[in-house]
Design a protein that fits this description.
By secondary structure, the chain is mostly helical. The chain has a domain of 64 residues. The protein is 66% helix and 0% strand. The protein is built from four helices and no strands. The chain is globular, with a radius of gyration of 17 Å. The N and C termini lie far apart (58 Å). 9% of the residues are buried.
Length: 116
């Protein structure tokens, strides 16, 4: 009996080239090119590491008060913003709205925590 579960995620080769989104501006192509190396690095890490780190930063940011809390939340917001910007062309309007709402909520939480 075979399993329907997907196999282990294959690791990309260092020479693997990421293609930029066709028909985009030079600024977008530049952002995608600058993001290629960090994305390849993240892909080689254990799958749970980035979400786990973001979850820890989010919990610390919400549990603590002051500037340290705001910094943790800003870090979460920056990573989410970067990933949203990279996926933006392929998102539906609902997906765009959801990502923007989450990023705005994290930014508001950072401001609130910084003033406590």
């Amino acid at each position: 009996m075979t399993s329907n579960r997907p196999g282990p995620r294959s690791k990309p080769l260092a020479s693997e080239r990421l293609r930029s989104t066709p028909g985009t501006s030079r600024a977008r192509q530049s952002m995608e090119q600058r993001s290629a190396a960090p994305l390849l690095f993240l892909r080689q890490l254990p799958r749970w590491l980035l979400p786990g780190l973001l979850a820890v930063l989010l919990v610390l940011g919400l549990a603590l008060h002051g500037i340290g809390s705001a910094i943790a939340l800003i870090a979460v917001g920056l990573v989410l913003s970067w990933l949203a910007a990279l996926s933006w062309p392929r998102l539906s309007s609902g997906g765009r709205l959801g990502r923007a709402a989450v990023i705005a909520a994290v930014a508001v939480a950072a401001v609130i925590q910084a003033t406590r």
